[in-house]
Amino acid sequence: AERNGGEEGDEEDSDLDAAADEEEFTLLGADAGGQIPDGVLEDEAARGRAEVEKAQARFSAKTLYDLVYGNQPLDAAPAAVVSKPQADPSADKKLALFEEEDEDEASTTAGTDIDAFESCKVPFGTNPGGIFQLDEEARAELKARKFATGGWDSADEAEKDADMQGEDGEDKPEGETEDPDKQKDEEDKPGNLEDERFVNVFPIGTYVRVTLDKVPAASVEQLTTARPMVLGGCLAGEAKLGMLQMRVKKHRWHKKLLKTNDALLFSAGWRRFQSIPMFCTEDRSGQVRMLKYTPEHRHCMMTAWAPLVNPQTGVLCVRNWAPGVAGFRIAATGSVLEASTQFRIVKKLKFVGEPKQIFKKTAFITGMFSSDLEVSKCVHAKLQTVSGIRGEIKKAVGTQGTFRAGFEDKILLSDLVICKAWVQVSPKKFYNPMLDLPEWRRMRTMAELRRDAEVPIPHKPNAEYGAKPQRVEKVFNELKIGKTLAKNLPFELRPEDTTMRERHELEDKTAVVRSEEEEQVANLLAKLELIKADKLQKKQAKRDIKWAAKRKVEDREQAARDAAMAERRKIRYRNEGQKEEKKQKGLRMRD
């Protein structure tokens, strides 16, 4: 069916084209034999060329529409102004390039018909007043139809309209009814609800006059037609300054980490500004802790003083955008979480003290606080020594910051006592809106300021990351091992005998040569010492056997004694139980 319908439509189109050719052939002045005179053909060709040149001149003119939506360069020379209204290139209908009306007639029609002129098609750099020769009434009609505001102050026009209406108020606005009940019924209709949404809306292509207050003079001097200005609006709540909390992540192509309290350029919503952010993260307990640097490959929270914007608004951060910066310039990306006047952000703080006096599990700590008032604010705070012993602040002692603390175990005088605390911090309230001017001064980072002023980085040992308090090495007393214990130890673990008389160097170098008699005496004394030691060893062995037999007898007697006592205790408990049972039985019978 579609195929047949298409074939029929083609046949109808061919018939219409044939009829149009025949009509055009007749209008050209063909005779009965079908021959057209040569003069007629030349006139028709000249008229076609003139129409083509006129159309080219009309579409080559640089208009405001082409400037905003087209790719026409700004420095192109504007073409001649054509009095005919230009057709919209985006329209579906075909453009009438070759019109049959005369040029004089067309110019007269264009000069008098205001509706035929499209205001957004005015050639750039020309005055609409030069195109139309209008009187005062026509100008007023054009201004009321093509412009949303007529003068610099709308209050002046409102006063003029009130004066024109007169005291009786005979002139009434269009759509006003005399019956209030009828007017109320019409306002309650569903159709009027849709009209209320378009009360302050103007159609596309309408010229409006906007008055901007408090514009800097430097911005006005930089205004030029070569750079169009984009106008946007902000909500009432977005005009205030406050704390913005954002969820951001360092861009993986940015080489350096971002540091807290370093100025960044933010692009959020309609605004570009500089602020000093503070990076933080939320731990397992729900506490927001400050971070000195951004994490390497994960998100974190960032708080800064900035104009308030709606949540889920995209945020772009740039650290340095100078022309000579090498590498990727986008430092971080993220979105806005919430806005408020203040956020609670805490920072880790460690107090270090030393034991002054120790009493078993109680100790007096000094050097951690400077007054008893500071101690009273930290009562029952948790303490911990470097060795891992935990404790708690009990009470202040004196007025110099010394306090009494309790610990799980006895601590040493060489221990360092640490109190881990949190202090609240807040970001700096700095806001520097960015201006597209060469004279605009941006806030530089601390690294750039140090580099330009050739100031070295200050070194603070207490602020180093990962630095822990150093424990003083304790010097212990010399270990003393008894002779009996040293004798039972292996040979490699026996302590050296330091009781020997110190020998002189000369004695070590001098050789002692004994005579035969002295040698015999020495051997005899050594044998006597050996016999004495053997007798003592045997005597000690007999004594050990005797004590073992005695201990065995005593253990057997003690076991019999314990068994008899257990039996007597069992009998006593049984008798007491029987007595108690009889007593309870007698009480029940009385009841």
SSE topology:
Layout (H helix, E strand, L loop, with lengths): L1 H26 L10 H23 L3 H6 L33 H10 L15 H4 L4 H11 L7 H12 L14 H8 L2 H7 L20 H5 L19 E10 L13 E5 L2 E5 L2 E5 L5 E4 L8 E8 L6 E5 L11 E11 L4 E15 L2 E5 L5 H6 L4 E4 L4 E7 L6 E5 L9 E9 L5 E3 L12 H8 L29 H6 L16 H5 L6 H75 L1
Antiparallel strand pairs: 1-6, 1-8, 2-3, 2-7, 3-15, 4-5, 4-6, 7-8, 9-10, 9-14, 10-13, 11-12, 11-14, 12-13
What does this structure look like?
This protein is an alpha+beta fold and 591 residues long. Helices cover 36% and strands 17% of the residues. It has a nine-stranded antiparallel β-sheet, with no helix packed on it. Strand 4 and strand 5 form a beta hairpin. The N and C termini lie far apart (112 Å).
Q: Over all CA atoms, what is the radius of gyration?
A: 53 Å
Biggest sheet architecture: 9 strands, antiparallel
Enumerate how many helices there are, as a single number: 15
The fraction of residues in strands falls at 15-25%
| Unreliable stretches covering 5 or more consecutive residues | 1-9, 23-28, 67-132, 150-155, 167-177, 190-194
Number of strands: 15
What is the structure about, briefly put?
This protein is of the alpha+beta class and 591 residues long.
